[in-house]
Design brief:
This protein is mainly α. Helices cover 69% and strands 0% of the residues.
């Protein structure tokens, strides 16, 4: 027997429309930031401060293709939130304003980078991570009802959260490097390795914090792994070349990929598996 759809209100409709509008703004501004309509591509702004060879923690340019996946997931989430059968969902009520805010902040980040305001842009990324972490936590507090909800609601939030964490690390280190006189792209090998170890620790802790929703945790882990692998690829195959950083990033990527699955397996011993079909 199918459970009845939760009742929705006018405020639920307004919230869903606001989410859709914020995602549209994020996509349009993101496209502009990539170089459309005469804009300078983000990697060329501020004398290449955010280019893939700017620091030892700059990922390969191919890593940024994940934005197309994130935008697609957010668009699907926005459409789901508009459906009459889903508008009244308590999970969406508690999380979509946060996702909408993060989407607008992603657009604000691009606008600030285009204005070469790198430090304010990094502060914006901190806000993105905070909002998405809260959204993920709220989704985890109310386990999803089925596979569709896991894939269409939780996974996009997890991917957005994981990549925002990568952006915070790479963006902040790039800003610091750009502000240092005489800094060279290959400087700071030991510090870069320490940062990557810290990110690997975060990748282990995050799925424990989000274990109420395996899909959010897995999405965050996959995005973290993708970004870390992008750093490994750049350091092992391009300039500035660094074997220690490349290997550390590759190992951190493996940890980020495996952690959500390992945490879920160990935490579910003797309990009902939240991913089991219902």
């Amino acid at each position: 027997m199918t459970s009845p759809a939760p009742s929705s209100t006018t405020s639920d409709l307004l919230r869903a429309v606001a989410l859709l509008a914020s995602v549209v703004i994020a996509v349009v501004v993101g496209t502009w930031g990539a170089g459309a309509w005469g804009a300078t591509p983000v990697e060329e702004v501020a004398y290449g401060a955010l280019a893939d060879d700017a620091t030892l923690l700059s990922p390969a340019s191919t890593a940024f293709s994940i934005w197309s996946v994130i935008y697609t997931g957010l668009a699907v989430l926005a459409v789901v939130a508009l459906l009459p059968s889903r508008r009244g969902s308590e999970r969406l009520r508690s999380s979509t304003w946060l996702v909408a805010g993060a989407s607008l902040l992603s657009a604000a980040w691009i606008a600030l980078v285009q204005a070469e305001a790198l430090w304010p842009a990094d502060i914006v990324i901190v806000g993105m991570v905070a909002l998405l972490a809260m959204a993920g936590r709220r989704l985890a507090a109310r386990p999803p009802r089925g596979w569709a909800e896991r894939l269409l609601t939780d996974l996009p939030v997890g991917l957005f959260l994981g990549w925002s964490c990568v952006a915070l690390v790479t963006g902040t280190t790039a800003t610091i490097a750009a502000s240092l006189d005489g800094h060279r792209p290959g400087d700071g090998t030991a510090l870069a390795v320490v940062v990557l170890v810290a990110v690997a620790v975060l990748a282990v802790l995050l799925p424990r914090w989000l274990r109420g929703s395996a899909a959010v945790a897995i999405g965050a882990g996959l995005a973290l792994a993708w970004g870390l692998w992008g750093i490994a690829q750049a350091r092992l195959t391009d300039e500035p070349h660094s074997n220690p950083v490349g290997w550390a990033a590759g190992l951190a990527a493996a940890v980020a990929f495996a952690a959500p699955f390992a945490v879920r397996d160990f935490s579910m011993i003797g309990r009902e598996d939240p991913l089991a079909p219902r």
